[in-house]
Write a structure and sequence with these properties.
By secondary structure, the protein is mainly α. 83% of the residues lie in helices and 0% in strands.
Length: 115
């Protein structure tokens, strides 16, 4: 039913598709929020499991994200504001978190119409 020649051609086709996907993945810029999201999730997991929190760590993360907010625009800025609001909430800064999350919504809405 299947010949080795046909099977070999299938493997070549799959390999070419995989190379194409890898090339596309490398061409896309890295997400600047990945490390901040990972740090926030690690903090939340440690707090959930061990019951201890490091507010200085969250403050450092928040300051770094705030710098990203200042230097970015568009969708990246909206996503950075969202991440900043989540970090502020985890740090017990509820009023500040709500204000930042409101700014994230406004930024996202303004970018939706601009694109």
């Amino acid at each position: 039913m299947f010949s080795l020649r046909a099977l070999g051609g299938g493997f070549v086709g799959i390999a070419l598709v995989m190379v194409g996907f890898l090339a596309c993945a490398e061409a896309q810029p890295a997400d600047p929020l990945v490390s901040y999201r990972a740090q926030r999730e690690a903090y939340a997991e440690t707090f959930r499991v061990e019951g201890r929190g490091d507010h200085e760590r969250l403050t450092r993360i928040a300051n770094e994200i705030a710098a990203l907010v200042q230097s970015s625009s568009g969708q990246t800025r909206a996503r950075a504001l969202l991440e900043l609001g989540l970090v502020r909430r985890l740090n017990g800064e509820t009023p500040e978190a709500l204000a930042v999350l409101g700014r994230a919504v406004q930024e996202a809405a303004s970018n939706e119409w601009a694109e």
